[in-house]
């Protein structure tokens, strides 16, 4: 019999603190995946994943159950990612439009060194997509990650980010459009 997140939370709050490990087992991979895609580095993603579950455990009594536990834990993880990005970069995000032409040429030159002239390999294309995704503003990047990689619905993303569904759709569309344009520039330069 599958035990729900809310049942695990009840058991944990009733003093069965080992029950929380069930939540960690259930949500560790999705939270790590989200963090890795947001931050781009394994070490940072592992740190954020650990911070997320520590914060969730410490604040479990504050979980009201108005939204699903998944929405709550994703929100904690996104906040931890944003904090890590601010500390690391001094700024939260950098728009593709703000990149200068030299920065774009440098990145294209790096990609050309990795890519054979005949054909792009699957892992090289994935790396180009990853770099393009990382260059997006965080508000767009997080929506794309949650929708395309975590397979969340628009409603779930709306609950997690506490924004209207229409805003989620707009950020997804705009982010994917920016990625497509950026990837076309890289492809044309190759």
Number of helices: 9
The major β-sheet equals: none
The dominant shape is: elongated
The H-and-E topology, N to C, reads as: HHHHHHHHH
Strands, helices and their partners?
Blueprint: H1 5-13, H2 20-39, H3 42-58, H4 69-89, H5 101-114, H6 122-135, H7 138-149, H8 154-161, H9 165-189
Helix pairs in contact: 2-3, 2-4, 2-7, 3-4, 4-8, 6-9, 7-9, 8-9
Task: Tell me about this structure.
With 190 residues, this protein is mainly α. It folds into 2 domains: 85 residues, Rna Polymerase Sigma Factor, Chain: A (Orthogonal Bundle); 94 residues, Winged helix-like DNA-binding domain superfamily/Winged helix DNA-binding domain (Arc Repressor Mutant, subunit A), CATH 1.10.10.10. Helix content is 74%, strand content 0%. The chain is elongated and about 60 Å long. About 16% of the residues have low confidence.
